[in-house]
Amino acid sequence: MFDRHSGGENAVLVHIELPDSHHQEDRDEFVDLVVSAGLSINAVIGGSRQRPHARYFIGTGKAEEIRQVVEEHQADVVLFNHRLSPAQERNIERLVCCRVIDRTGLILDIFAQRAQTHEGKLQVELAQLRHLSTRLIRGWTHLERQKGGIGLRGPGETQLETDRRLLNDRIKNIRKRLDKVERQREQSRRARKRGNIQTVALVGYTNAGKSTIFNRLTKADVYAADQLFATLDPTHRQIELVPGQRVILSDTVGFIRHLPHDLVAAFKATLQESRQADILLHIIDASDIRKEDNIEQVYQVLNSIGAGDVPVIEVYNKIDRLKQVKPKIESEAASNGISISDSKERYNEVLNKVWCSAKTGEGLELVLQTISQQLEIEWLDLNLLISPQDLDIRSELYNLHVITSESAAENGDTELQIKIDAADWRRLNRQTNQRLQQSCTGEIPDFSVVED
Predict the structure, then answer these.
(1) Which whole number is the average pLDDT over 204-226?
(2) What's the CA gap between 64 and 43, in Å, rounded?
(3) For residue range 29-83, what is the model confidence (pLDDT) as tens digits?
(4) Would you call 149 exposed, middle or buried from its count of C-beta atoms within 10 A (0-12, 13-18, 19+)?
(5) Which own/partner pairs from 65-71 qualify as long-range (CB within 8 Å, at least 24 positions apart)?
(6) Residue 231 has what pLDDT?
């Protein structure tokens, strides 16, 4: 469909150091991404700039160096560890005479390789089409003028306009199908609420060991490998924490710094699992020297998808790679049990920290123990008095299936008894601007967040 250079497996990597954190990326992580995509690395070109170059992102001298390296190694593709504009991609491609892909395009390609389910493939295609929609100008350059001549008059569209119309039609079609998937997921979540089946979602930076822990706890055979984005399609399994206490454990896609917005939008239904969970298991690679930055990135993504109110148990995995570290449980000592980062992007209440090894199985019983204990104390039995002006709150509570009894007061108010988990209480209380908490007639739980 497009006049572009063909891709291949021999790659030249470009990583530029920039003082602006918005453009700064990790070089080692970039190499891991390329290896996960199945490419062979011929050369890595580095450098530094104060700001991106408007035409090439890297400057004319460095662009010429890349052209020479590509010619020397007969490379098939040039990969940038940065997000390029469509114009920058096109300009570099013309200069080096081979395929040019930025960081976003690389991540999308990895997702396309990993998608197995019908839903996953639709989500990846939607993200790819959104990314492609800004790059249509590069295609069909020989047909940019409107059609004309004998037998060709009529439509009045350029080939570019035709491509854009067809692409938008496909995007609308995929969105409708994904909306249906989201409604089905919502029905499943409501069924679990009605059955008082609580959900624990595994989240974390990519390659932190989520799928390995999931397999250990559920005795499942979800694909797990030492590579980035080994898991793409969400998986659910029911496990028994203690006799009589069962929960749904969900394995979700891993996060990464500067996660492309197209992916976040496309995977809305999948990421919803994290937002609707009762507790999040934040899996952390304890052996990674970048773990503090990775933790911050995960909380930023959670906040961006609306999961900033869900309580978290931090699970420090891979202690088998560390010396003199034993399985243990640490209680969070932060004020009010709530940690807020310097960037104000972290709002999740960190309940406990558990140190374990999914590879050897050490400490996994502590993970189950912590989940069980926390779910027991997260349920709240409350009495509410809802005024006629606040019936929207009553409607939201009915949607959550948390109302155990209802009666009418003499003054026209509605008396409700509810059993609600603390995560839903916090979320609704924020959405209603504290009106929910004000309607509570008994002891009011204090979940206020104190910012520094």
Answers:
(1) 79
(2) 15
(3) 888 888 888 888 999 999 888 888 999 998 899 999 999 999 999 998 999 998 8
(4) exposed
(5) 66/12, 66/14, 66/92, 66/95, 66/96, 67/95, 67/96, 67/97, 69/12, 69/42, 69/43, 69/45, 70/12, 70/96, 70/97, 70/98
(6) 57
Q: Does residue 350 carry a pLDDT above 70?
A: yes
What's the mean pLDDT in 194-211? 82
pLDDT value of position 222: 60
Task: Name the more confident of 12 and 439.
Answer: 12
Report whether pLDDT(341) > 50.
Answer: no
**What is the token pair recorded at 392?**
């929207």
> Could you give the CA distance from residue 202 to residue 313 in angstroms, rounded to a whole number?
10
pLDDT for 226 equals 54
Q: Please, are residues 309 and 426 in contact by the beta-carbon 8 Å criterion?
A: yes
CA distances to 56, 110, 231 from 227, rounded to whole Å, are: 31, 11, 9
Q: 338-344 long-range CB contacts below 8 Å, 24 or more apart?
A: 338/449, 338/450, 340/449, 340/451, 340/452, 341/296, 341/299, 343/296, 343/300, 344/451
More confident residue, 348 or 87: 87
What length is written for the chain?
A: 452
Q: Are 223 and 312 in contact (CB under 8 A)?
A: no
Torsion (CA) 284, 286, 290, 293 in degrees, nearest 10: 40
- Distance (Å, whole) CA 277 – CA 302: 12
Percent of the chain with pLDDT over 70: 77
pLDDT at position 70 is 93
Is 310 in contact with 279 (CB distance < 8 Å)? yes
Of 396, 394, 423, whose CA–CA distance to 278 is shortest? 423
